[in-house]
Write a structure and sequence with these properties.
about 250 residues; alpha+beta; Alpha-Beta Plaits; 7 helices; about 35% strand
């Protein structure tokens, strides 16, 4: 299976309209496309105007074929009015030699991942609305990628599924960089995920795989241990939280 993330920053006054548009327009378009098995809209719990359109496909080829298709170009054009403006500004001269300037549109960012490992419960896709999503982005040492995937499959996934409220978990590998991964877990509620993050099991699992993390992250961890405070150096290990606003299974 293949995962596609479309990151969006919306105008705050048009969020409800966009959700309605997603349910009434995006779903019907995607449902008729070969290979699309699920589509959903998730919202950041920290940035209320940041959303991700999350889709699952049977194959990478089918997802990439969609990106060059008429339906994608049509939908992309329709969502532009909902997008927030960037903090960047364009300045140029008009034909009348007048100085003109205006904000640059905040373009959506597309990220694509192959699913390397997952638990066997696919039913989560059918009743996912209002659940909580925990997204962990991490970079692995190139020569430890296979070891990391084996540890995640054999140790992390079984342990997470045994945690209270964890319904679905999988590991995805970037199609552009073989040592960049995203771990996605879906929980019944936010409190369950936060309880896991602050508990002993989280520390225990991290200890078992952290030797595979990027050298930059390991260096940061050594500084934090030495000075007893957080040291921010990169996004080699980043946790983000989202709420599933709407989701639909096409299987």
């Amino acid at each position: 299976m293949f995962m596609r993330l479309l990151q969006l920053k919306l105008k705050s006054d048009f969020i409800e309209e966009f959700i309605y548009f997603y349910e009434q327009t995006v779903y019907p378009e995607l449902q008729n496309l070969p290979g699309c098995v699920f589509a959903g809209l998730i919202k950041s719990t920290h940035q209320p105007d940041e959303f991700i359109s999350l889709t699952f496909w049977k194959t990478q080829a089918q997802a990439e074929e969609y990106e060059t298709s008429g339906p994608f170009k049509k939908l992309f054009g329709q969502i532009k009015p909902f997008l927030a403006e960037s903090e960047e500004w364009n300045v140029h001269l008009s034909e009348d030699m007048e100085l003109q300037y205006g904000p640059v549109e905040k373009e959506p960012v597309i990220r694509k991942y192959d699913i390397s490992a997952k638990n066997e419960n696919d039913d989560i896709l059918s009743d996912s609305a209002n659940m909580f999503v925990r997204v962990l982005s991490l970079v692995i040492q190139q020569d430890k990628v296979e070891e990391f995937k084996e540890l995640y499959t054999g140790i992390v996934i079984p342990a997470l599924i045994d945690m209270k409220g964890c319904r679905f978990v999988f590991l995805t590998e970037s199609v552009n960089s073989s040592n960049e991964f995203i771990s996605v877990s879906i929980w019944d509620k936010k409190e369950d995920a936060l309880e896991y993050e602050s508990g002993k099991k989280y520390v225990e699992l991290t200890d078992k795989v952290k030797h595979t993390f990027s050298q930059l992250y390991l260096w940061r961890m050594s500084l934090e241990k030495e000075y007893g405070q957080k040291v921010s150096t990169s996004d080699d290990f980043k946790v983000e939280h989202y709420k599933i606003i709407t989701g639909k299974n096409f299987l």
